[in-house]
Amino acid sequence: MLHSAQIPQDNTFLRMNTMKTAQSALQQFANTINHLLPHAGQVEITPGVTATRRHHTTALTPTIYTPALCLIAQGCKVFYVNKKSLMYDESHVMLFSINMPIVAQIVRATTTTPFLGMRINLQPSLIAEVVQKCFPNGFASLPPPHGAMVHNTSTDIIEAAQRLLALTPQSPSDQHIAPLVMQELLIRLLYSPIGQHLAHIGNQHSDIHRVSMAIDWIHQHFHEPLHIPTLAAITHLSSSAFHAHFKAITGMTPLHYQKSLRLQEAQRLIRTTPLDISEIGLRVGYHSASQFSREYRRMFGVPPSQHKTATLAHHHGAPAHPA
Predict the structure, then answer these.
(1) pLDDT tens digits, residue range 224-258?
(2) What is the distance, to the nearest Å, from the Cα of residue 302 to the centroid of all Cα atoms in its chain?
(3) In angstroms, rounded to a whole number, what is the distance separating the alpha carbons of residues 48 and 122?
(4) Strands annotated E in the chain
(5) Least C-beta-crowded within 10 Å: which of 84, 169, 304, 316?
(6) CB 148 within 8 A of CB 94
(7) CATH, domain range 27-202
(8) pTM score, two decimals?
(9) Which residues have a Cβ under 8 Å from the Cβ of 75 and sit 6 or more positions away?
(10) Which fold has domain 207-315?
């Protein structure tokens, strides 16, 4: 007499099968990036979809992230948002809901086991369209929005991301398939624990949208004095409400946000132009050389003059600090 197999009551078999499926999806994800990037570097596979390969850990690197979804096939990365650190690896997704000046660092990467990552820029209009299809009556309630957050990923999300990465831009059929795979990925995300946070990005009536309008203004006028009443008027909020919403979403005050933009632009100018330090300070909005030097050193660990010296030495092939 044949007996049906007994499924363990603790679902051990199901958990082991799920783990194997997730590991297989990650391996395929990593293989796709390795195929696209056999050497260290970064490449835009299709508009808004970027793959990265790094063979070494990196120093703290200031940068600005636009709304994006970030996934890792191999390795580990840390983002520092103001004084808060967000670490994510193969088992997590990173969601940026708004333009954020942050500091990034790859903390796990070797030549034999390189860091392999993927970034997908998010379009608010597309998110709004997919939300309307999946939730025509909207969400019952949305959690408070955050500018950056980390959450556990899933096999479905990894597989959809891998399929998007594997599409060939030159293929006529793949050009038609790409938007469908992108919609699939957004649907997977909307039904995941970060779905309601993703929905904020496509909601024109959300605090994310209001703060985004203010951030756009700050980016265009970062070298000018900051006036909270002007930003509050742009967002149709009172000054106190605007300040509270801005800090809740970005993790920093509008003044701190502006300062981060100024100092990141100053670092870029130091590295890429022959301008002297005083001129760079003026260009990014500092009329006090001592204040510029003090705040630059507080953010980057060294004064701007030392960064300039190191940059010049690097360009001339000489050591920045002679023995």
Answers:
(1) 999 999 999 999 999 999 999 999 999 999 999 99
(2) 26
(3) 8
(4) 41-46, 49-54, 61-65, 68-74, 76-81, 84-89, 92-96, 100-108, 115-121, 148-152
(5) 316
(6) yes
(7) 2.60.120.280
(8) 0.84
(9) 54, 89, 90, 106, 108, 109, 113, 114, 115, 116, 117
(10) Arc Repressor Mutant, subunit A (1.10.10)
